[in-house]
Amino acid sequence: MEEKYVADAVRSGWVSSTGPYIDRFEAEFAARCGTTHAVAVNNGTSALHLVLAAAGIGPGDEVIVPAFTYIATANAVTYCGATPVFVDVEPDTWCIGPDAVTAAITPRTKAVIAVDIYGHPADYTALRPVCSSHGLLLIADAAESLGGRLDGAPVGALADATTFSFFGNKILTSGEGGCVTTADDELAAKMRLFKNQGMDPNRRYFFPVIGFNYRMTNVAAAILCGQLERSEQLISRRKDIVSTYERWASGKAELEVPRTVHPAERAPWMASLLVSGTASYTRDQLTARLADLGVDTRPFFPPLPGLPAYGPSTDSWPVSEQLSRRGFNLPTYPDLTDPELEEILRRLDCAFRDIQA
Ligand SMILES: Cc1ncc(COP(=O)(O)O)c(C=O)c1O
Asked: Left, alpha or beta for 255 (phi > 0: left; psi -120 to 50: alpha)?
């Protein structure tokens, strides 16, 4: 379907940021997420920045973010001139929880960005009352969790606004792309204003605010309309791959599989494993052996406050640090065939044997 829709978009001449696939994608994606508005943008980082800018977050404001996330979450706060305030994540979900968030709230706090890291939805049921009682905007960074659920409700409708990424390695992709979903009419209208250079939708070349060019193209939206049609199939293939790896790992005392904390349902973004703290080898030794055998892995994200961009910090982030040291992701993409997966498992067995020898 992607090919057909892209060919249609190209033939129609509507290749830029106006065209029927954009409206169609926004309507279908909002419906899929069980919410009212989807605002399509050019990537997941712009999606985060757009919500914060439209919510009026600026210099002097603080936004609570996890120490354990991809850097885009914190960068979006920095782009606004606001300060990201890092909190450690919980050991079971790997996401920020209500106690750490409450402890980090100050009179300057304006928003909280919870990240559904490696596909596990944060505990929005607990975060929502904390945010509403302090008048804070709750944003879900769902770049990695499309298809996840909490208590049966889909990711996309669990926070005041939810941001998605459609980068090449994401659950749905248009190469680069992003989206914000929300049920807030006013926030959605402001995001539409800001994403189009701040131009008044009813008055061409009249700019009430300074905005950005964060528009998605009709060609990208055409790809996403095709991807959405087969989203269940794409998600279910990823689920099969993740559970195959997890079945393989669950027999190994020196590996840990991620927990899924009820009533959350994890989205199958990437198969994630942890080398146990008592293992006789490190994660880096294991992944180096896997690389020798031709298996490409990714280490978990480093804690952001320890990076030159956001550090140095004298505070410690024990859970984030542990996860970052011990975790890695295995090849997970829907086009992976069963024979390819079996071959990876065979090489995993080899690496595991070699490293224990
Ligand atoms: C948690 C998280 N937030 C934000 C982003 C940024 O998305 P993008 O790369 O589309 O800008 C990503 C992905 O790359 C991510 O994993």
From this structure: beta
Domain limits for position 241: 231-356
Determine the Cα–Cα distance for residues 235 and 161; give it in Å rounded to an integer. Answer: 22
Average pLDDT over residues 86-99: 98
Tokens of 101: 């968030």
Which ligand 1 atom is the nearest neighbour of the CA of 169? 14
Residue located via tokens 């008048």: 135
Question: 279 vs 2, 256, 275, CA distance in Å?
Answer: 45, 11, 7
Q: Given this model, what pLDDT does residue 145 score?
A: 98
Best substitution site from 49, 63, 144 to test ligand 1's pocket, by max atoms within 8 Å of Cβ? 144
Distance separating alpha carbons of residues 221 and 211, to the nearest angstrom: 22
Task: Give residue 143 CA to ligand 1 midpoint distance, Å.
Answer: 5
**Which atom of ligand 1 lies closest to the CA of 45?**
11
Looking at 178, 210, 229, the residue that finishes a domain is: 229
Ligand 1, residue 178: give the atom nearest the CA.
10
For the segment 330-345, the average pLDDT, to the nearest whole number, is 98
Residues 254 and 201 in one domain: no
Substitution candidate for ligand 1 out of 41, 42, 43, 45 with most atoms within 8 A of CB: 45
In this structure, the residues whose C-beta lies within 6 A of any atom of ligand 1 are 43-45, 69-70, 72-73, 115, 141, 143-144, 165, 167, 178
Assessment of whether the complete model's pTM goes beyond 0.90: yes
Q: What percent of the chain has pLDDT over 70?
A: 100
Indicate whether 138 and 267 sit together in one domain.
no
Q: How many residues does the chain have?
A: 357
Q: What is the CATH number of the domain that holds 241?
A: 3.90.1150.10
CA distances from 47 to 15, 32, 213 (A): 21, 18, 12
Cα-Cα end-to-end distance for the chain: 49
Residue 346: CB atoms within 10 A of its CB come to 12
- Model pLDDT for residues 29-66, shown as the tens digit of each residue: 999 999 999 999 999 999 999 999 999 999 999 999 99
